[in-house]
């Protein structure tokens, strides 16, 4: 009995020892916390009110160095560019009024001719004979009239006979005019000064009435038709200077003037048709050439900035403007015109404002900057 109680006491003591050791390791906090544990504990503690956070401390202690350039407000003329096709100031396809056999071609393709100069002669023997006969009738009628007028002075003929002789002379003259007109129609003449085009006709060909013979172009000036956008239509005026170039004559610049403006805006394309006249003293411009036409529109005041200042994002073009407190702000711009390294823009910028041109990587609204020498 005593032996059993002793074994029970020993067993109970062992259980108590095991429980104590387990309690010690499970529930007692270690007394020697490491440096890393202390750092984690410190980092987990919230910052007290009034103390700057890490991002605020960085902003307060670091500024970005940038290079800036001044904004200049200048009077900028808008430039309108368009493409048009040139045509002769006067152009015509020459044709014959009457049918006949060609007796002679009096021009060569590319030849310059004067108004009224003979170009094509049709055979006209019958018409020449008719003119001669009509002339004979006139001579006879004039002789009769003179004889009757002499007799009238002697009161040998009635006045009515003299009047009849005068009527006969007038009819003969009218017949002669008609025959001479028919003869003139056998000759095709140049309607105006110009340059003759190609022809496929030759001597002996039968020419139908109204059939084309050749083209003639008055290239003393060329007309170029082009269109401009509705927004600048009101800025164009008759006589306004234009500058034209053509790929056919590289490096050649022709200055002309607006000679015609349409009376309405095209409702479908929202454009205005215009026409410019280009001088052609050297006769180097040809009808059908393609021309690039530029028109300078009277200027307006716009901010001009270096092209390096322009940035783009999903909202469009913008620049970083430097405020008086050495911070930057985003200013949206609309590009109006580029000229070498500068850009004219529409923007809320004043003369003398500064914009960032270098060091803009990582800039954000309100960021502090330090100016570096350009």
Structural account:
Strand 10 and strand 11 form a beta hairpin. By secondary structure, the chain is α+β, with helices and mostly antiparallel strands. It has helices at residues 2-27, 35-44, 54-61, 125-153, 159-184, 230-233, and strands at 64-70, 72-95, 100-105, 112-113, 118-122, 187-189, 194-196, 206-207, 212-229, 241-245, 253-261, 271-279, 290-306, 311-313, 316-322, 328-332, 334-339, 342-346, 354-358, 369-371. The strands form three sheets. Strands 1, 14, 15, 16, 19 and 20 form a six-stranded mixed β-sheet that branches. Strands 2-9-12-11-10-13 form a six-stranded antiparallel beta barrel. Among the domains are: 64-76 and 301-371, conserved putative lor/sdh protein from methanococcus maripaludis s2 fold (Beta Barrel); 81-87 and 216-299, Beta Barrel (Elongation Factor Tu (Ef-tu), domain 3); 124-185, Helix hairpin bin (Helix Hairpins, Orthogonal Bundle). The protein is rod-shaped and about 180 Å long.
Give the helix/strand layout.
Blueprint (H helix, E strand, L loop, with lengths): L1 H26 L7 H10 L9 H8 L2 E7 L1 E24 L4 E6 L6 E2 L4 E5 L2 H29 L5 H26 L2 E3 L4 E3 L9 E2 L4 E18 H4 L7 E5 L7 E9 L9 E9 L10 E17 L4 E3 L2 E7 L5 E5 L1 E6 L2 E5 L7 E5 L10 E3 L3
Parallel strand pairs: 1-20
Antiparallel strand pairs: 1-19, 2-9, 2-13, 3-5, 3-8, 4-7, 5-6, 7-9, 9-12, 10-11, 10-13, 11-12, 13-18, 14-15, 15-16, 15-19, 17-18
Helix pairs in contact: 4-5
